[in-house]
Each structure stands twice: as C-alpha cells, then as structure tokens.
Amino acid sequence: MSGDSGGQSILPLEMLEILRRIEKRGSLEKLRKVRQYCNQIFRYAIATGRATVNPASELTSTLAAPKAAHFPHLRADELPVFLRKLAEYHGSPVTRMATNLLLLTGLRTIELRSAEWSEIDFDNALWTIPESRMKMRRKHVVPLSRQATDILLQLKTFSEQYRLVFPGRCDINKPMSEASINMVLKRIGYDGRATGHGFRHTMSTILHEQGFNSAWIEMQLAHVDKNSIRGTYNHALYLDGRREMMQWYADYIDSLSSQES
Q1: pTM score > 0.85 for this model?
Q2: Domain with 12 in it: what CATH number?
Q3: Catalytic residue among 208, 223, 235, 243
Q4: Do 197 and 82 fall within a single domain?
Q5: Which CATH number covers residue 132?
Q6: Per-residue confidence at 260, pLDDT binned at 50, 70, 90?
Q7: How large is the C-alpha radius of gyration of the chain?
Q8: Catalytic member of 21, 50, 135, 163
Q9: Which of 75, 85, 165, 227 is least buried, going by the fewest C-beta atoms within 10 A?
Q10: Any domain includes 68
C-alpha cells in the first residue's frame, strides 16, 4: 500500500498485506484494535465522500481472532431476558443495584465493591477513583449516566452513614464479598453464562459495534497503558465524549429492559 494512496484506491488485499504482518507477530489483540481503527476511519471516509469502499470490513473472517475472553459474558441479544430476571431478583437490593451499576459503568468488580462515598460527585455526575484503587495505578474518572446516578442515590438510603458504598455484612469497614455479584448471577440462572467482569466485555463490544471512538471506550475501561504517549494526557481529555457515550449506553440498556417489560 503506497504512502500516497488515497482512500478511494485502497483495496482489501492491500490492507490485508499490512495486517498480516501484525498477525504473524502473534499480536492478535493489537491486530483487532488496528482493524477496528481502520474500520472507523473508512466508515467516516465513506460518510464524507472520501471513499466508496471500506476494505477493513471485508477482512473479519480472513484474519485470526484473539483468544476468547476468560470471563463468560452476555451478547446484546441476551440482555433483555437477563435484565428482566435481574429486576425480578428478590435477594438483597444492594447487591442487585451493585450488579446494575457494574453493567452501567464498565468498572472492574473490585473497583465497584470498594467504592467510597467521598469518591462520588453528585453535582457533576462524576466518580473519581484514586490511583491506589486502580489496576493501572492511575486515577480514573468515570462519567455517570442519569441511570447510574439514580442507583447511587438509592444506595444512599442503605449506606450513606458508612465510608463504603457497599459495606460488608459482617464488617462495615470492609467491602462486600467478592462473590456477592456472581452469587446474584447464579441465583437468577446465569452461573457460568455471565460474570461481573464479563459486563466490561459486553459493554466494549456494543460500543465498538456502534462506532464509538475506541479511545473513549479504552479510557472508560481504564485500559490506557500508563507508559503510552496517550496515557500522558490529562485524564479528562475524553470526558465529554465519554459522558455522551455512557449516557447512550445507559439509554440503550433501558430500551432493552422495556423489551421484556
């Protein structure tokens, strides 16, 4: 693929030659991300009249896929039934709301379970998790959708008097059990079919399929490499875009809930 090729002249075979180089190195996750970036670029090029063909979209079945995720996760078409069963769960309302909040934020389970009320800014609808609690040891700012904010407001009636949003049953100074959310999933019939961590994969897949900016998605999932150039930018760089994206996602989840109401 020549350096001066215009979008109109790039063929699937030419792009395949480039992507094969990444595939041969065994960097399958990087291959997936590069193909997604190319797909977004050409979708935009077609929409603005700069190209007529998206060569990246033709290569999905041609290239090797990354290894399957270790965490069971739900597809979009499985969510309506799941959401109905979760709404009908008659166990602890706190663990049910924790499960809903995990689905709406894309946080890791440990990040959610250890949440402290001091991290929540209701006025600006932001949740700021300190670097000490993050896997990548970087402060993580999470824009909260209206639905996520509503859940947190409901949770205040249960635990506002404590430091932790989700205090443990036996010790209020320790977070709820690691097994709490997965126990909810088991009791509503999703043992082995879904996990709390798997909600991150579900969200990522849906947002990528909808064409949202990959950088927004990666930052929302706190996947940004602390050693990368992008990682040196201010954590709020994509905040407006991520806020819009997460509100869309929460509204989308609501629309799926109504399908089973």
Answers
A1: no
A2: 1.10.150.130
A3: 223
A4: yes
A5: 1.10.443.10
A6: low
A7: 20
A8: 135
A9: 227
A10: no
* Catalytic annotation, pick one of 96, 200, 201, 242: 200
Predicted pLDDT of residue 1: 46
Look up residue 138 and give its two tokens.
Answer: 């970087």
Tens digit of pLDDT for each residue in 224-255? 554 443 444 445 568 999 999 999 999 999 99
Identify the active-site residue in 140, 197, 201, 242. 197
Q: Is 186 a catalytic residue?
A: no
Catalytic-residue membership of 73: no
Is residue 63 one of the residues assigned to a domain? no
Provide the 8-state DSSP code for 26: T
Q: Are residues 137 and 186 in the same domain?
A: yes
Contact 29, 69 (CB under 8 A): no
Contact criterion met (CB below 8 Å) for 212 and 97: no
Is 200 marked active-site?
yes
Residue 230 annotated to the active site: no
Task: Indicate whether 111 and 28 sit together in one domain.
Answer: no
The range of the structural domain enclosing residue 93 comes to 76-259
Based on the fold, state whether residues 43 and 148 are members of the same structural domain.
no
**Do 179 and 147 fall within a single domain?**
yes
Is 2 inside a domain boundary? no
Distance CA 184, CA 74 (A): 15
DSSP string, 97-148: HHHHHHHHH---HHHHHT-BGGGEETTTTEEEE-GGGSTTSS-EEEEPPHHH
pLDDT digits (tens, 9 = 90+) for 38-52: 888 888 888 898 888
Tens digit of each residue's pLDDT (9 = 90 or more) over 125-153: 999 988 788 766 678 899 999 999 999 99
66 falls within a domain = no
